[in-house]
Design goal:
Layout: E1 2-3, H1 6-14, E2 19-21, E3 28-32, H2 36-46, E4 55-57, H3 64-67, H4 73-82, E5 87-92, H5 99-102, E6 107-111, H6 116-124, E7 129-130, H7 145-152, E8 159-160, E9 172-175, E10 182-185, H8 191-198, E11 202-203, E12 227-229, H9 232-238, E13 244-248, E14 261-263, H10 270-285, E15 291-294, H11 303-313, E16 314-316
Parallel strand pairs: 1-8, 4-6, 5-9, 10-11, 12-15, 12-16, 13-14, 13-15
Antiparallel strand pairs: 2-3, 3-7, 4-7, 5-6, 9-10
Helix pairs in contact: 1-6
């Protein structure tokens, strides 16, 4: 069931249930982060491997100290600037956080969502929420309550409807191995914005077979129709005669039916492109086509995070 009853959502969570929850990035599949049975439900519902850790959500910056042992100076600066918001900090956890949440790691990913419904829900609860994206593992992340219902509606009792996600990309994850600020996952806060606050950072590769942080697996966010990355003019020639769809940054192609293509932002706006990315992939995945041809964006601003998702969604680059 989809609705806007925050009190009902909180009651279900207190009963150990798992629900769909809006955030400004993507919709989350939320459960009590301190209850291993609830966390196990999240993994089961998503069919997510237990070696892929979850993000823990709290309502206020001051609450971070309840769940982590130490907050480095750089993390404090980033929290002051970007929390609540699309930032996740990877910090040393206290024992109160179950190892199941962190896939056995001593580090926990902590976030404070900016969405007012998520804030209100967290304020009602005496525990933090573990909440990965509310989609079957490896598939396109949901940016509306309807997306969650289409994918998981028969597996969860309630989806809190907070409208369309304003950012549409997952959070940026920053950790501090050996005291060096490191971006483990590109996301809704740009690398440039992070560096304006704390100076130069290390930017990790997008993939890992044993991820230290959520969302680092090489294959992820993928549509069911094969997505092929490259220069669109070259790909169009290569796949001529095939049933193809196009996912472009700005350009539309006259030779392709309009219903089989999606331009992320005709004006070249990175924020608009990020907001449209997962909806566009989901839309094309439902068209009568055999391949989705896609292009990378310029490697700057939110283009970096969009490219990260496209690379992991693709079968060929």
């Amino acid at each position: 069931m989809i609705g806007k009853d925050i009190a009902h959502a909180a009651a279900l969570l207190q009963q150990g249930e798992v629900i769909g929850m809006p955030t400004e990035t993507v919709y989350g599949l939320a459960g009590n982060a301190l209850d291993e049975a609830s966390v196990a439900k999240i993994f089961s519902i998503k069919q997510r491997p237990s070696f892929d850790p979850l993000i823990v959500h709290v309502a206020k910056v001051q609450q971070l100290e309840n769940w982590v042992k130490n907050i480095p100076t750089a993390a404090h600066l980033l929290a002051e600037k970007f929390m609540p918001g699309a930032l996740t900090l990877l910090l040393e956890k206290k024992d109160l956080i179950p190892d199941l949440v962190t896939a056995g790691s001593a580090l926990v990913a902590m976030r404070i969502p900016a969405h007012p419904m998520a804030q209100a829900l967290l304020d009602m609860l005496p525990f933090p929420l573990a909440a990965p994206s509310a989609n079957p593992f490896g598939y396109i992340s949901p940016t509306s309550a309807a997306h969650v219902a289409q994918q998981l509606g028969d597996r969860i009792p309630y989806i809190l409807d907070g409208g369309l996600c304003s950012i549409g990309l997952e959070s940026t994850i920053v950790g501090f191995p050996e005291g060096k600020a490191t971006i483990f996952r590109k996301g809704g806060i740009t690398v440039e914005a992070i560096e304006e606050v704390i100076g130069e950072v290390v930017v990790q590769s997008h993939s890992s077979s044993n991820p230290q942080a959520p969302g680092m697996l090489k294959s992820h966010y993928a549509p069911r129709i094969p997505l092929i990355l490259g220069e669109l003019d070259v790909l169009l020639a290569q796949y001529r005669g095939k049933r193809i769809g196009i996912l472009s940054f700005q350009e539309k192609f006259a030779e392709i039916p309009s219903e089989s293509q999606f331009a992320l932002s005709s004006s070249g706006d990175y924020t608009e492109a990020a907001r449209n990315l997962f909806s566009a992939m989901r839309y094309l995945d439902q068209q009568p086509i055999d391949f989705i041809l896609a292009e990378l964006l310029p490697e700057k601003d939110l283009g970096r995070a969009i490219n990260d998702r496209l690379r992991r969604a693709s079968v060929i680059e």
